[in-house]
Amino acid sequence: MPMTLVEKILAAHADEDVTAGKIVWIGIDVRSARDFGGANVVKNFKKYYPGGKVQDPAKTFFTFDCNVPANTIPYANNQQICRMFAKDQGIKVYDVDAGIGSHVMIEEGLGYPGSTVVGTDSHLNIMGAVGAFGQGMGDQDIAFVFKTGKTWFEVPGSMVVNIHGDLPKNCSAKDLTLFITGKLGTKTALGKAIEFRGPAIDKLDLAGRITLASMATEMGAIIGLIVPGKEVLKHFGQKKAITPDKDAVYEKIIDLDISSLVPQIAKPPKPDAVVGVASLNGREIHSVFIGSCTNGTYEDILAVAKIMKGRNVKPGIVATLVPATMKAWKRLLKEGHISTLIESGFVVSNPGCGGCASGQIGMTGEGQVHISTSNRNFAGKQGAGDTYLASPETAAASAILGRIATIDEVMK
């Protein structure tokens, strides 16, 4: 029977037929827990499997990224609980100096094309960027996977989003991602696996694919999958990608044209309240955050550094920036980009989730207008202010001019 991409990945890890809507048991290649939820995984493991050992320590990991280093007693306690359990079980910990767990998994080749990955991160479906199946799950569920190496899923139905046209030069992967989010909303793809296709998708580098896959959650989807191209396959040392069957059946096929796309921005308090940046041109802002699992890659930060070279953050604007991983941080430092960013007026912090989680690198106050490159702008998510979601380029331009602005205005 013809299979979609998600069906093929799951079928390769199951001992039974895999079809949409069917509940199947799946073997899990990577089992993880982050500092948020990790301690509860440990507590549940000890409660339900007293004296037990994890099924495969080499496939089991802790990743600390929400609050690093811990600046609250609860987070400090939770991280230490995980460290002690990891030492006892022989599990590797990517500690407070590593960066965002999902990014570390991609960098280190732990989660690879065709693999299955679970953890306590609600955005672990970002693994769809490399053609892998990733899911965030509850603490008891992850404890079960730690013990057994498997879990069950209801196989999601699939839909296709075909992107027609080339991405305009003044737009980035985040603009494309926000555009798609605005068009789909939160219901069109609800509970489904999306396969993103088209020449513009094929041309996205790994960083761009990460950006797109990172907002599948905000689209209501189970996961957003992209068939790996040559660059992605080379990163993992693979030669051939898993592809869907040509005659696979999809619940929906949506066609979107981006030929005339302009820079996009999502208005608070919803990630799908997307409009053109120019429509909000001139609104005064107070702060900018660049980073998160959506836009914290080396490539994202490099783009900002190039814009800021010879320019400055407008006085009075609080501009913060957090690379996603230590590997990216070190490369940016070695190449001089960290210095460029600091000299231009950015506060640059250690790798992690940064402004997207737990107040790391600061929160917004009432009345504060904030531009963020993260994936969520719900009320209270990044503080009491109003958060707009935008690309790194738009965020940098807005920091320079002190108002919502397009990169074209700065470059002119």
What strand order characterises the main sheet? 4-3-2-5-6
Averaged pLDDT, please? 97
Shape: globular
Radius of gyration: 21 Å
Number of strands: 18
The percent of residues in helical segments reads 25-40%
Euclidean distance between termini CA atoms: 55 Å
- Determine the structural class based on helices, strands and strand pairing: alpha/beta
Describe what you observe in this structure.
With 412 residues, this protein is α/β, with parallel strands linked by helices. It has 15 helices and 18 strands. The model has no long low-confidence stretch (mean pLDDT 97). The longest helix is centred in the N-terminal third of the chain and has 17 residues, at 73-89. The protein has helices at 5-11, 35-48, 73-89, 101-107, 139-148, 173-184, 199-202, 206-214, 230-235, 292-295, 298-308, 326-334, 337-344, 392-401, 407-411; strands at 23-27, 30-34, 60-63, 92-94, 116-119, 133-136, 150-154, 158-164, 193-197, 223-225, 252-257, 264-266, 274-276, 287-291, 318-322, 347-348, 369-372, 386-389. Strand 8, helix 6 (173-184) and strand 9 form a beta-alpha-beta unit. The chain is globular and about 60 Å long.
Present the secondary structure layout.
Layout: H1 5-11, E1 23-27, E2 30-34, H2 35-48, E3 60-63, H3 73-89, E4 92-94, H4 101-107, E5 116-119, E6 133-136, H5 139-148, E7 150-154, E8 158-164, H6 173-184, E9 193-197, H7 199-202, H8 206-214, E10 223-225, H9 230-235, E11 252-257, E12 264-266, E13 274-276, E14 287-291, H10 292-295, H11 298-308, E15 318-322, H12 326-334, H13 337-344, E16 347-348, E17 369-372, E18 386-389, H14 392-401, H15 407-411
Parallel strand pairs: 2-3, 2-5, 3-4, 5-6, 8-9, 8-11, 9-10, 14-15, 14-17, 15-16, 17-18
Antiparallel strand pairs: 1-7, 12-13
Helix pairs in contact: 2-3, 2-5, 6-8, 11-13, 11-14
